[in-house]
Specification:
Length: about 210
């Protein structure tokens, strides 16, 4: 595996608040004179964004699970080879809003695809790139549904898959945390955002040697 210390990722089920935490982190890094490149999955390039539209559109509910995972891997491959690897090679800090762990959790555990195949596809699409640290913002599927309803959020194709689907996904992330305890950092996402960020910032400062 290719591991870059300047590459960290954020994971979690939908409505976990990970994107909010990423924005907090980017602002804090900027205060300390650290510029970081933010990428999201699926997306981040012209090709990957077009694939994202296909994946999330409710017009394509007939999409089968194998098609789904192959599209995710295609979007990821383009992002990794066009944006992430060149940036890391130049010494840039890179933060990813989702990476291949989402595919393991959503398509492997959620859709219950063959895990060996999922792992092979993840490695192939990324040329064996692995995050140095991964923040898993953990909330219950029930909390996620409550947040969605409070925000009157329109559901995309995946979000319509139901509570049991998200229970499988969360369990998948917890399994990944137990399998790679050094890389995965489980963060309780059901607290106040500012308190959550304090924990994340303390860890990031240590990882990237940032002084207050």
């Amino acid at each position: 595996m290719n591991v870059y210390k300047k590459f960290i990722t954020f994971e979690g089920i939908d409505f976990s608040g990970k994107t909010t935490q990423i924005q907090f982190l980017l602002s804090k890094l900027k205060e300390h004179g650290v510029e970081a490149l933010l990428v999201r999955e699926p997306g981040g390039t012209v090709i990957s964004e077009k694939i994202r539209e296909l994946l999330l559109s409710s017009e394509h509910e007939e999409m089968n699970s194998i098609t789904e995972i192959l599209l995710y891997e295609a979007a990821r491959s383009q992002l990794v080879h066009q944006i992430i690897l060149p940036a890391l090679s130049e010494g840039e800090f890179v933060i990813a809003d989702r990476f291949y762990d989402s595919t393991t959790a959503y398509q492997g555990f959620g859709r219950q695809l063959n895990m060996e195949v999922v792992n092979i596809l993840n490695s192939f699409a990324t040329s064996n790139l692995k995050p140095y640290r991964t923040f898993f913002i953990d909330i219950s599927p029930e909390e996620a549904e409550s947040r969605r309803m409070q925000n009157n959020h329109w559901q995309d194709r995946l979000e319509k898959s139901g509570l049991e689907f998200y229970k499988k996904i969360r369990n998948g992330f917890l399994v990944l945390c137990s399998q790679e305890p050094k890389r995965f950092l489980r963060i309780d996402g059901e607290r106040e955002p500012a308190i959550i960020f304090e924990e994340i910032w303390t860890i990031v400062k240590s990882i990237w040697d940032i002084e207050e």
